[in-house]
Amino acid sequence: MTYPKLVINTDAIRDNSRQIIKLCSSFNVQLVGVTKVTLGNPVICSLMKESGIGVIGESRIQNIQRLIKNGINGPFMLLRIPMKSELRETVKLCDFVLVSEPQVAEWIDELSREIQKTVTLIYMVDVGDLREGVWYESAVEEISSVMKSLRKSRIAGIGTNLGCYGGILPDRENMLRLIEIKDQLERRTHAKIDIVSGGNTSALKLLEDGSLPEGINQFRVGEAIILGTDVTRNRSIPGLRQDTVLLEAEIIEMKTKPSVPVGTIGRDAFGRVPSFEDIGLRKRVILALGEQDCVPAHLKPVVKGTRVMHGSSDHVVVDITEANQSFDIGDTMRFTMSYASLLRSMTSPHVEKVFV
Ligand SMILES: *Cc1c(COP(=O)(O)O)cnc(C)c1O
After folding, report:
1. pTM surpassing 0.85?
2. Cβ-based burial of 349 (10 A; exposed 0-12, middle 13-18, buried ≥19)
3. For 314, which of 88, 99, 177, 290 could close a Cys bridge (C-beta 3.0–4.6 Å)?
4. Distance between CA atoms of 132 and 176, rounded to whole angstroms?
5. Is there a catalytic annotation at residue 69?
6. Closest ligand 1 atom, residue 197 Cα
């Protein structure tokens, strides 16, 4: 047994997948299961597929290659706009690709003719968050001209992503903006836009309160399946499980020390200026865990009365003065975590992944 490790609860992830499929299908929304926070983990991907998810969304070609190597045959949707340098692999391996540049769509079209494989393109529209996509006011112009220029691959949908740069939340207004663009495109080009891909985990709220306008028919969801949370609204999603993943690390030191360091304070190992309040002597442990393995500030200890005080590359200090349990050197402590911390743990080669 090596530490640190992530303990991944397969039942909980399966339950969340099923629950979200149920919610989505009652609004005729197709659920794309997103594995990118797991480094394309084949076990987690299989859990999604077993639960009834069809299309798998990934942001990285290497992760898709990993999934294929482990016997998962897709269909795959590439979520990040592809780099020019990865277009050939993209066309070979993906069935759906999100794009936002006419030039990239044309390159993909040329490659699909060359290697005789079509991909379905979803053109991204920026409805306000300011990350990827053509700005909504010029979307009809740009997308209709690309639709006319393609010969083998096809733009079968439009999509949007929110809550990632501007922190803009999905609402009726920005969803209607996307539907309006779809309607105008269909009128102008006389082609059908089959897919209207409305968003990620943050869009689930519109299903929960029944405010999703008719016409949005696809969501691409990762966080809600794997953590049961929605970081954009800082909430646990009702009906979903949050006992999906725990990070476990080992105690390597346990001492009682003052709460304020002694000497002149400069910056810590990460350039931060620490500040301290004198609350007397504290009993603390050091864990063999650090910024390399997780985001220490985003960890929540399972044991009540304990608190993460600090993390550097390889050490996390936890105050256990008021813990309702006793600890020893060599014992382990367990934590729940944020999306950002899970991302770091899943992508760290130092963190073992264990499925229960
Ligand atoms: C990451 C990502 C998603 C999934 O986001 P979650 O918040 O994990 O549900 C969906 N679409 C795009 C374009 C993404 O990059």
Report:
1. yes
2. exposed
3. 290
4. 18
5. no
6. 11
At residue 330, what is the residue type?
G
Q: 10-228 has which CATH code? A: 3.20.20.10
Q: Is the CB of 201 under 6 A from ligand 1?
A: yes
Q: Domain map of the chain by residue range?
A: 10-228, 245-355
Task: For residue 291, give Cα distances in angstroms to 90, 181, 336.
Answer: 32, 43, 15
Report pLDDT digits (tens) over 49-86.
Answer: 999 999 999 999 999 999 999 999 999 999 999 999 99
Lowest model confidence (mean pLDDT) among 142-156, 162-176, 268-282, 308-322: 268-282
Between the CA of 170 and the centroid of ligand 1 the distance, in Å, is 13
Nearest alpha carbon to residue 132 among 171, 81, 83 = 81
Give the side-chain half-sphere CA count within 13 A for 94.
32
Q: Point out which residues pair with 354 in neighbouring strands.
A: 7
CA atoms lying within 13 Å on the CB side of residue 11 = 2
Residue 1 pLDDT greater than 70, yes or no: no
Residue type present at position 40: G
